Amino acid sequence: MLYNPFSKGSTKLRLEVQYLMNKIPVSKEILDTIFEETGYNPNNLSIRETNRLATLISKRGEFDFVRMEMGIPNLPTPDIAKKAEKEAIDRGLQGIYPPFDGIPELKLAGSKFVKAFLNMNVEPEHVIPTCGSLQGGYISQALAGNMHKGKDTILYLDPTFPVTRYQAKFLGLKSEGIELYDNRGKKLLEAIEQKISKGNVGGLLWSSPNNPSWSCLNENELKGIAEICDKNDILAIEDLAYLGMDFRKDYSEPNAEPYIPTVGKFGKNWVTLISASKAFSFPGPRCGLAIISPRLNKQEFTQLEEFCGRKRFGHAFSLGGLYVTTSGTSHTAQFALTEMLNKSTKGEYNFIEVTKAYGERARKVREIFLNYGFKQVYEKDMDETVGDGFYLTMSYPGYDGTNLMLELMKYGISTITLKSTGSNRHEGLRVCISFVNENDMPVLNDRLKKFMENNK
Amino acid sequence: MLYNPFSKGSTKLRLEVQYLMNKIPVSKEILDTIFEETGYNPNNLSIRETNRLATLISKRGEFDFVRMEMGIPNLPTPDIAKKAEKEAIDRGLQGIYPPFDGIPELKLAGSKFVKAFLNMNVEPEHVIPTCGSLQGGYISQALAGNMHKGKDTILYLDPTFPVTRYQAKFLGLKSEGIELYDNRGKKLLEAIEQKISKGNVGGLLWSSPNNPSWSCLNENELKGIAEICDKNDILAIEDLAYLGMDFRKDYSEPNAEPYIPTVGKFGKNWVTLISASKAFSFPGPRCGLAIISPRLNKQEFTQLEEFCGRKRFGHAFSLGGLYVTTSGTSHTAQFALTEMLNKSTKGEYNFIEVTKAYGERARKVREIFLNYGFKQVYEKDMDETVGDGFYLTMSYPGYDGTNLMLELMKYGISTITLKSTGSNRHEGLRVCISFVNENDMPVLNDRLKKFMENNK
Fold this sequence. Notes:
2 copies of one chain form a homodimer. By secondary structure, chain A is an alpha/beta fold. Chain A folds into 2 domains: 10-74 and 352-453, Aspartate Aminotransferase, domain 1 (Alpha-Beta Complex); 79-345, Type I PLP-dependent aspartate aminotransferase-like (Major domain) (Aspartate Aminotransferase, domain 2). In chain A, 43% of the residues lie in helices and 13% in strands. Chain A has helices at residues 10-23, 28-38, 47-61, 79-90, 104-118, 132-144, 162-170, 186-195, 219-231, 294-297, 302-308, 313-325, 331-345, 351-371, 401-410, 440-454, and strands at 66-67, 127-130, 153-158, 174-179, 201-207, 235-240, 270-274, 288-292, 375-376, 380-381, 384-385, 391-395, 413-414, 416-417, 429-432. In chain A, strand 10 and strand 11 form a beta hairpin. In chain A, helix 8 packs parallel to helix 9. Chain A is globular. Chains A and B meet through helix 4, helix 6, helix 7, helix 12 and helix 13 of A and helix 4, helix 6, helix 7, helix 12 and helix 13 of B.
């Protein structure tokens, strides 16, 4: 039942390409039957259902899909991480609770890492390992929505990672959104000012690069956001899930310009979430970092004491939220992440260079789509061309997103709609390139070519 | 900064015993100075503060403490777990997200394990790996307090693991308690009926064996609880943190009487939490199991849909709570737990026999305390003598719990008060035996002897 991304042999592939042309597109009848059998609603498919659907069509049609629906990493974990975690296991650390605010080694490594690559000045105490940066987002939202009376709404810069909105819901918080693509620069700051004017917003959450538009907030925007948040007692929650993956700039050298942009360089009301899933190909252990603003960390809030028995923000985060949800994250995995961060900081492991493989895949996939009449939905990042990263956003003339997604399914290509990611660009699809390997490229090419021939 | 429980050499120890007698008890002045420096409140110490205090006195007094304040496991993780997790790492599974409702192997192993040792009949789909059984308790309480309108209170059988109450607070739920020691058998069921009569209780949570009284609910009590919960739409949350550690019975043979008692054999509204921390000496990876009642799993609740967008209980647990808090638990650790469960079920690894070491330590520590005039606070488990397990509860004539705890600190013995565990027996202490090794026994003996001499 495991993903086995590296197994597609080229011999099998060549055979596949030969007979594929007679099998795709699968008929509407087959698709209808599968929808009838599963009971899925074609207008409201979850990623998981899309995934299942692709598997069923794949079986029925006897061909492999080009899988682009899941936003999951697909590069091997570096050997240094394997070695470090195995050593920690040999030292018996499966048998000992992790300190719930993280092992000192990782807290120190994290503080040096964010100095080297984000030019942030924080102490080890401000670095809290969490069960994936996702847990850091959960706890941050919990605190954001409960630290000031009446400020129980989280504002998102859309499109956004859908789980962040589910988190707010589970926490009993309300949510609002601003479409990032229509609002950049000064216009973005104005839109935020307008949205928060009712005084009910406790947190502002965004991901940069953005999933899936790949827009990246620039330093002026981050500075403006920090000012707004500080002035209005709003917690800025910055999700760096795709750390350093704006490959238009070279962030690979530690302790040197350019640095990865972060809200952490401005203002005081922020938490920055550092994910290891993509940047370090380390999604399995659920181990990321939350970096808490030093000034916020020691600040005290009467409302937080009422909410979780801890007045000080830093205590509310670790002794409040982290302690009650999981009491820390894997002891042995923390040593693996420590090693990867330390080696990166010393310039001995180049995590940017490794993840560039994604950018390269995106470039090739983008060219194939554009060759066959597709349009890139989010093609600009302010005045610049958007970078090639982990996702592409595509549309085709005459189709809305849902119909295009279903039609491509018939051709053995799985994607999700932009609508389902909270985007207002309902004509488009989110295309994740992580599982498209070299052998898939000619298959994708043939299938899209056929799609275009049938849609002239 | 790691605990290093196995390092006390006997040579060092013998030296220590020689000069100790001149150093303890440390003076009241030293203790006062330390309280002044730390700012701690002696009447309201957290476990963490007690731990820190012991370290400070230890440094000042230049002697090692007999550490009994932390309820943390202290047996080496079995080699089969090390091997299995290292193999999973070698297979590259740090690089792949875990399925967030658990790897199929562990779900299957869990269902066989609870059949073999608890005589429970569940399918793999009812077994959900979580980041420690603690996360299972968090999610269970979240659902319990939100699945029926107006039932937003969790009822605990006290004393209880303090974190469970903090969880309810973080979730915005109310809590009430029943002192278990005063209420057993028919009286317990009556006390529960009385407490729930207002209709505001959504969940009933207990741990068996109980932390720290080591009381164990019997099958009649569990059956009665199940009936009350089913009749009144209350979720029974059973915390088996110390699985099988009632050593008065021999639970070591799989698929044979006696079975470990569980609410899961009765009724339908229950979640049973299986911790691997103590039973499998596996606290580091944060990996436990939640077993969801098959009948409850597929039941639908309008209120849950409103709460977290999922109507079906099982979906609300995994796609609701688990997904938004951590999106699953360590991929590689799940293979280690799978291996330990499978080997146990096959009778190839005897986890009961291994954890009996704790019972043996408890017996020796108990005898030393009783020799020197201490009384066992919770000495009965209904009509039987309570078993020797992970904790002891002790008092000394003429002392209340806080003063006794502080006085023992001067003798290099750290414990916590029963009051701080939610017990109404304010005269007593909770004594955790996990870190008391063979070399500590004579030290403990000498110190308590001296304590008695000074308190005649």
